[in-house]
Amino acid sequence: MKKEKYQQIALVMATALLMPASNPTIAQAPAAEITPVLTAEQKALQNPKKYAKDQFAKYNWSDDQFPCLAKLWGKESGWNHLADNPHSTAFGVAQMLGEESLLISVQIDRGLRYLEHRYGSPCMGWRFWQQNKWY
User: Fold this and answer.
1) Are 90 and 96 within 8 A, CB to CB?
2) pLDDT digits over 37-70, tens only?
3) CA distances in angstroms from 1 to 32, 91, 93, 119, listed in the order given
4) Which residues are paired to 96 by β-bridges?
5) Long-range contacts of range 51-55, CB-CB < 8 Å, 24 or more positions apart?
6) Gap between the Cα atoms of 108 and 95, Å rounded
7) Domain coordinates in residue numbering, the chain
8) What is the pLDDT of residue 12?
9) Is 102 in contact with 81 (CB distance < 8 Å)?
10) Distance of CA 72 to the CA centre of its chain
11) For residue 97, what are the β-bridge partners?
């Protein structure tokens, strides 16, 4: 699928995420009574770095691992969930090979699992990237 198609799909998905709830009870409630509950995807779209950092507890990583992740994915994709490597099948924030999901939350979650499985932590992954220019 071409990059333009991914962008069209992402735009449709983002628009759908931002549409008001169709629940009539919520629609009729005064604004002060509504507490928005954001989905993982909405949180990740709003602030992908914060979303990623908020997942660290699942891996028992401390916050001092975050600068390494920020640099690593900054070099790989610039934190762009539509980043597409023309020389391989790498796609998305973490530039995972064969990644097909347009959902930024899914890309981040898969990228964090990969880092834990392959390197143990974002800083170990960043060290490997610094030596090899890939991870």
Assistant:
1) yes
2) 789 999 999 999 999 999 999 999 999 999 999 9
3) 44, 12, 17, 31
4) 91
5) 51/104, 51/105, 51/108, 52/108, 52/112, 55/108, 55/109, 55/112
6) 10
7) 38-132
8) 46
9) yes
10) 13
11) 90
